[in-house]
Design goal:
Structural class: mainly alpha
Low-confidence stretches: none
Distance between the termini: 25 Å
Shape: globular
Number of helices: 8
Radius of gyration: 17 Å
Number of strands: 4
Largest sheet: 2 strands, antiparallel
Number of domains: 2
Mean pLDDT: 94
Order of helices and strands: HHHHHEEEEHHH
Strand content: 5-15%
Helix content: 40-55%
Length: about 160
């Protein structure tokens, strides 16, 4: 289903705090079967959210680039890893991560919201929004952040809250 970003942002304003509170509660005391619940809910979430109508993650966030990502993507562009970092990335000293210099992402085609390096995209992008990672409790801090940016994360947490909140 097509994502209306304005409507999504309004929902986050209305319900984001409560959903983050729900995640905090899950983090402190996760019910048995939480990972299974996420796996069960995931298909319905993806029936309701079309990433290509949104791309808010690519417009407002940056993936973390691993050294493997840098090597793979720089080789694709026939650049050295150092030249690639110099041209496209910045180093976050606080978190010790390599991130995009630009937002929206330089590889996002804004006409169709498709990634121009999709086949070799960073592993962080490939796994985003990390809805069905095993040990969901290890990703609750990530989901708390992503509720504000990702309609799929928002939907997943909303559905979980409706079922077990």
């Amino acid at each position: 289903m097509k994502v209306n970003l304005n409507s999504f942002k309004q929902k986050v304003k209305r319900n984001g705090k409560q959903l983050k509170s729900f995640l905090t509660k899950l983090d402190k005391r996760a019910p048995k079967g939480l990972d299974n619940l996420a796996e069960m809910l995931s298909p319905t979430v993806w029936q309701e959210v079309d990433c290509l109508s949104c791309a808010n993650c690519c417009k407002t966030m940056s993936p973390t680039f691993t050294s493997t990502d840098v090597k793979r993507i720089s080789a694709h562009f026939k650049m050295t890893p150092a030249a690639f970092k110099e041209k496209y990335l910045e180093y976050d000293k606080k978190d010790k991560d390599w991130l995009n210099k630009l937002q929206p992402c330089q590889w996002l085609n804004l006409k169709d919201n498709k990634c121009s390096i999709y086949e070799i995209r960073p592993s962080d992008c490939a796994g985003f929004p990390h809805l069905t990672k095993k040990k969901m409790t290890e990703y609750i801090h990530v989901h708390k952040q992503n509720i504000e940016y990702c309609p799929a994360t928002y939907k997943m947490v909303e559905k979980m809250n409706d079922l077990i909140g």
